[in-house]
Amino acid sequence: MTPRLQNIASHRIVLRLIEHKLRTPLIVYHTDLSPAYLRELYKEMHGESPKAGRVPEAQNILSSRMRVIEASLLMNLYLRYADREGARRAIQIEPLVDAYDAYLQIRAGMADKNLLDINEAWVLARQYRSEELSASRCAPCAAVFFTVPDQKVETNCPACGVQAGAGGAADEPEGETSWTDVHGQVVLAF
Ligand SMILES: [Zn+2]
Fold it and tell me: Are both 108 and 37 inside the same structural domain?
């Protein structure tokens, strides 16, 4: 790509990030655009100024079994779009926003408190880069899920409840949707 085309492409990504309401300082981190300019763009797009506030902590994102499922779905998508080794060196912002769009499509119409926002997705990608977020594959049900040290919920497989690394048979919870029904194609692609 020529520098001019590269510039247009990176502007497109910035617009997508603002559309999803990624915090201004996080966009600044990935671009050479000024915070004032980004805030203006945000205001034009959303009709209000961007909210200030702290970036969430990974431990607070992975706050329940359902949230671990959401985070794992998002991260499996991210690592499908991103160069996996590169994702350990840097947050890959374009694959991240692609993954976030795919995540919203899978979760279309779901107005749920468990739904991840783009800032939470960014934090997960950052923790993956710093190797604080680690992936485990559950032997019995093949779910690939993500955990951080000191998280508030158990680090068992969120799909079947088996402890990470255990190879025993899964106790399949009755009457619950299994991970592979909902996430099979994503999990298996990891
Ligand atoms: Zn499992």
Answer: no
Tokens standing for residue 145: 């899920």
Count other C-beta atoms under 10 Å from residue 78's C-beta: 25
Q: How close is the Cα of 138 to the center of ligand 1, in Å?
A: 5
Q: What is the pLDDT of residues 41-68, one digit of tens each?
A: 999 999 999 998 889 999 999 999 889 9
Tell me, in angstroms, the distance from the centre of ligand 1 to residue 161's CA.
6
Q: How far is the CA of 7 from the centre of ligand 1 (A)?
A: 44
118 Cα to the center of ligand 1, angstroms: 26
Distance 48 CA to ligand 1 centre (A): 43
Q: Which domain holds residue 13?
A: 3-46
What is the tally of structural domains in the chain? 2
134 plus 84 within the same structural domain: yes
The whole-model pTM stands at 0.83
Indicate whether 38 and 117 sit together in one domain: no
Q: Give me the helices (H) in the chain, please.
A: 3-19, 24-30, 35-46, 58-61, 65-81, 86-89, 93-106, 118-129, 179-188
